[in-house]
Amino acid sequence: WTEFKINRTRITGTLVLAVFTAVLGSLQFGYSLGVINAPQKVIEKHYARSLGVWSERMPGNSSDTGDSPDLGMHPDVTMYWSLSVAIFSIGGVLSSFLVGFVGDLRGRVRGMLVINVLAVVAGLLMGLCRSWKPHIMVISGRFIMGFYCGLTSGLVPMYIGEIAPKAYRGALGTLHQLAVVIGILISQVIGLEFILGNDDMWPLLLGLSGAPAVLQSLLLPLCPESPRYLYILLGKEQEARTSLLRLKGAYDPSEDMEEMKREKDEADREPRVSIFSLICSSTYRQQLTVALMMHFSQQFSGINAIFYYSTDIFERAGVSQPVYATIGVGAINTIFTLVSVVLVDRVGRRTLTLVGLGGMCCCAIAMTVGLKLQSEYSWMSYTSMSSIFLFVSFFEIGPGPIPWFIVAELFSQGPRPAAIALAGCCNWTCNFVIGMTFPYIQAREREKKLPLHLLHSHLLNLLFIFPPQVFKERSSLSEKRWR
């Protein structure tokens, strides 16, 4: 019996393979998020050339670097470039509602396998964009890739949450965010001008967005289906038991089967919960409030503003190569996500979230003061730079990774797909709003010479840190997990 108890928390090779294969979709998500920014000037030049508003013989243009004083000012180029960036989030918003449908239709593993077709098609469209009109093909590819990422950002945490042993559920759930930040870092590194972010190789840089889907498609047939899906949704007890044995090795699965039986009985007693029913139901209001507030706070924390603004801050601080400092921010992002993997099951979800948001708020204040006063006091530039690194560190400790897997932990099998779909839509919608409004806020604050947008982004966080009722763990289902 002691051996059985040990095996119940053992990390097996099959479990490692299943989690690694799943988070390849998260890696692709992160790569797609970051890949579009590095070659911006080069892509704008090709857009302008395709639209007939720029040529090699125009004075002041450089065929090597793509620099042009008037290039970014042309309204057609600006419109198509903005659409290339924003269309990714639009695809994610639309597909986030389909996460539960795709996951339940053919299963978690087959669902991830089927949607890889979207990623491959998107990668081919962007990789072959020079063969036709680059702006049309890139925008089409980005939309399809966003549609894919909206699905995978829900399916991956759902699958990992259902196959992970209780003792490692938080740590394994954090791997989704870890893969995302690693993907962002990879895109920043290979997007450097001397690697792929240049006039000749930028289509390959964008086309590589679909590469992880190819590897994932080869590995997914080796991964066991979620035992919770097999037993609770399909009623296949023997298949669920076999899946548990594959994931956890030789052990007595009776306790896990009994837990799933209780959840299945509970799910059978309650009707299938739709998104509308979930919103209107008072039964799930507590869990839904926590889930949505966490996704709101993740996006409105200002983390994207930091990534957009970090290069400018480093330039103003006198850094000779600000692009490498920005890559350093990506590296810190990755390192502290690893720290979260270690701490999340020991310290708790709630504590890490509150510490992370509180630390980010303090860093935003320090950064604002540093940027305002660095023209008067040279040492304030170091305050600004330090605040950036600490800001990212606090984000990845809790507010970054936890919202992606906490939804699956807070809800039972019945309302879980609807909750994940609603939370994903919330996250993607906030992402789109930030992507569209940040340049205007930044321009406005630059006119005032005070980057208050870093503080504006934390108004919601202050409400999140000191809510009157949100964090009273009343739900018997989620109390221990959330704590």
So how many helices? 24
CATH superfamily of the largest domain, by name, is MFS general substrate transporter like domains
CATH architecture of the largest domain: Up-down Bundle
Shape: globular
Give the topology string: H per helix, E per strand. Answer: HHHHHHHHHHHHHHHHHHHHHHHH
What proportion of the residues form beta strands (DSSP E)?
Answer: under 5%
Biggest beta sheet summary: none
Uncertain regions spanning at least 5 consecutive residues: 1-8, 62-72, 462-483
Number of strands: 0
- Overall structural class, as computed from helix and strand content, comes to mainly alpha
What is the count of distinct domains?
Answer: 2
- What is the name of the CATH class of the largest domain? Mainly Alpha
Mean pLDDT: 81
* Rg measurement, Å: 23 Å
Helix content: over 70%
By CATH, the topology of the largest domain is: Growth Hormone, Chain: A
| Distance, first to last CA | 29 Å
Subcellular location: Membrane
Family: Belongs to the major facilitator superfamily. Sugar transporter (TC 2.A.1.1) family.
Keywords: Membrane, Transmembrane, Transmembrane helix, Transport
Protein name: Solute carrier family 2 member 2
